[in-house]
Specification:
With 100 residues, the chain is α+β, with helices and mostly antiparallel strands. It has helices at residues 26-36, 78-84; strands at residues 5-9, 12-13, 20-23, 46-52, 55-64, 71-76, 92-98. It contains two helices and seven strands, in the order βββαβββαβ. It has a seven-stranded antiparallel beta sheet. Strand 5 and strand 6 form a beta hairpin. The protein is globular, with a radius of gyration of 13 Å.
Amino acid sequence: MSDVFKFEAAPWQAKEHKWCFVSLPEDMSEELETRFGGQAAGFGSLRVEVTVGETTWKTSIFPDKSSGVLAYALPLKQAVRKAEGLEPGTTADFALKLAL
């Protein structure tokens, strides 16, 4: 799969723990669910490769319906946040491609 999905987002911190995430845009989340949801792993996760700034890593995105709409959540490891200066509320450009 060579589709690259680009979006701008600001990290947010989960209330129940110290993990930070970014939410993919609703329309992008709907497209990913429609095209790849049938290939999802546990908890509806999709394997992805993500680039922000100079950092690229492999992880999974997870469906998050806490806002009432589907928006995949991308967890941000502390090492990535530190390397790219990402703090809750700071906006960054992300590029994501499926690693199915």
